[in-house]
Amino acid sequence: MSLEADIGDLWARKQDGLTATDATDEHLAVLEEFLTALEAGEVRAAEKVGDEWEANAWVKQGILLNFGLRETVARGYGGVQYHDVLPLRETDDLADRGTRNTPDGTTIRRGAYLGEDCIMMSPSFVNIGAHVGDGTLIDSCDTVGSCAQIGENVKLGANTLIGGVLEPVENAPVIVEDDVSLGAGCRVTSGFVVGEGSVVGENTLLTPRIPVYDLVEEEVIYGELPPERRAFQRFVDSSVGDHDLIPGGAYKPAVVASDVEEETLEATEREDALRD
After folding, report:
1. Low-confidence ranges of the chain (pLDDT < 70)
2. The dihedral formed by the CA atoms of 87, 190, 135 and 198, expressed in degrees to the nearest 10
3. Alpha helices in the chain (DSSP H)
4. SS3 of residue 88 by DSSP
5. Is residue 76 within 8 Å of 82, Cβ to Cβ?
6. Which of 21, 92, 27, 87 is nearest to 62 (CA)?
7. What is the pLDDT of residues 95-119, one digit of tens each?
8. Residue 90 near residue 78 (C-beta atoms within 8 A)
9. In this structure, is the dihedral angle defined by the CA atoms of residues 35, 188, 48 and 209, taken in order, positive or negative?
10. Which domains are assigned to the chain?
11. Residue (of 187, 130, 192, 195) closest to 160 by Cα position
């Protein structure tokens, strides 16, 4: 059977009551093969079909099975002792792709993919199922959540949070497309899609519950930032702004998006000297 079929079979068994206590070496071998395929970039939690991103439900099922069919055990890595259902990812293959991670605080969980020519600064964390494209910079204090799909030549500014989405399995995870620059302190959550070539200002929150005022197309949209936009956070009047308990009014977050200006693009050019 194919890997997808093997995962589907295990998923059905799990729904019928299979537990970590019952899992056999054969079951665990399937899960190991699955994690290896994730780390090699051979399978992904989501892929772009036409203009839309779609979740690969079976891949997310495979990730969930790695939690449901494994026992929590004591583990060690680099002299650090911890308890988890999964070990951390081995990083021997990264050097062959020209990718590097700095010491004392870069943590890559099993089942995560990092492409060629990436830089991962410490401290930072990439979770299971995440896919990080070629040439991407993960800066200090960044978190890339489970199943997040990060494109090529992306800049994640320091202290950026990319949220994870595991359940429901049919929901697409957070997507950051190619050539995006996220300023320091940005947060992208709940399956939000950041379009290709966009530049997002510092401390901007992108989530489907916050409106994006797209000044290019003169519309208000939710859940996505169109390609090639310059975006930043601002606050607009809240519906409870006139409440007696809130002197001075109340405000809620919003995002404003406009065309990317040339000087903005120049300011976010990739530092090629870092990769020599």
Report:
1. 1, 263-268, 270-276
2. -170
3. 3-15, 25-39, 57-68, 262-267
4. strand
5. yes
6. 27
7. 999 998 888 789 999 999 999 999 9
8. no
9. positive
10. 3-73 (1.10.166.10), 74-275 (2.160.10.10)
11. 187
